[in-house]
Amino acid sequence: MPVQTIDLFCGVGGLTRGLLDAGLNVVAGFDIDPTCQFTYEFNNHVDYHLRNIREVMGEELNEIYDENVTKILVGCAPCQPFSQMRFKYGGANQNDEKYDLLLEFGRLIEEIHPTVISMENVPQIRETAVFNRFLEVLNRIGYHIDSKVIFCPDYGIPQTRRRFVLVGSLLGDIHIIPPTHNSLNIHVRDFIDDLPALAAGQVDEADPLHRSASLTEINLRRIRASVPGGTWKDWPEELRCKCHKKESGQTYGSVYGRMTWEQIGPTITTQFYSYGTGRYGHPEQDRALSLREGALLQTFPRNYNFIDPNRPFVFRDVARHIGNAVPVRLGEVIGLSIRAHLINNGVEV
């Protein structure tokens, strides 16, 4: 019986690309953001359904799946309500319109009973009522579940990112594959060192995605005074920000920081292009990461096209697409886990 996968909350296709690389057949992606459609379809050759998940019914998904297939449904609901920065607001986050989207995924699981399901999110989601309700759905249906917090470098992803991954199956026990890499051997250099040098605000003629944000004169002086792996405390006093001189600012050592070639990079967020929002300074060039460098640290293929020729180019939109994506390699790890499980249970993949 052949296998078909639908990817909910697919964005520009980080998870879909990883599942395809793992050898799984993805037949559709669903997302509410129209600016993601070109990138998703162009790079993955999979239909993008511009839909609000709240309005999608299981019957619609069943119409996409062929008859007599093993159905896989994956859904990486937005993590913003559960991020470490926003988690401190506690119950207030329940007012976020994205807070209960995981339950919409659970609703669709209840409606179609796919053979295999998977989700990915920040580790903090495990402490929420919405996640417990999602687990109740899975347990009620009878899914066998495996879950773990993954340290991304253990699987070859050059970020200090930790992500919670869950897989479930109606066939029997399912397991996330063990680490594939020694995290000590994962370095920023191996992913972005060979790209052409750029000045702040410059665009590479050969690759329009390899472009960096401009810097103000004061920030240009600051990054020139920064050392790889250092902090703003390395700067002369006159370059320090007012917030750094307050007691509350003493702990933010990574802000305005340079990366280090021989270490793991920071977690790539939607603000990775901004020198002042984290350790996003290039290890040796006087600028923040380019859009292409952010995509490569998210393990997207080098030729992944994020620029829609039919829309005006908006730097922040592309950075948001890249930062919000599931790292492609993490998607591949999920796909390899599912594939191994299906093969062990005699399913044709």
From TrEMBL:
Active site: C79
Broad EC category: transferase
Keyword Nuclease attached: no
Top-rank taxon: Bacteria
GO terms for MF: DNA (cytosine-5-)-methyltransferase activity; DNA binding
InterPro entries for the chain: C5-Methyltransferase, C5_DNA_meth_AS, C5_MeTfrase, C5_meth_CS, SAM-dependent_MTases_sf
Signal peptide: none
Reaction(s) this enzyme catalyzes, per UniProt: a 2'-deoxycytidine in DNA + S-adenosyl-L-methionine = a 5-methyl-2'-deoxycytidine in DNA + S-adenosyl-L-homocysteine + H(+)
GO biological process: DNA restriction-modification system; methylation; negative regulation of gene expression via chromosomal CpG island methylation
Keywords: Methyltransferase, Restriction system, S-adenosyl-L-methionine, Transferase
Record-listed E.C. numbers: 2.1.1.37
One Pfam family of this chain: DNA_methylase
NCBIfam families named among the record's database cross-references: dcm (TIGR00675)
Family the UniProt entry places it in: Belongs to the class I-like SAM-binding methyltransferase superfamily. C5-methyltransferase family.
Protein name: Cytosine-specific methyltransferase
Organism: [Eubacterium] siraeum DSM 15702
Gene designation: dcm
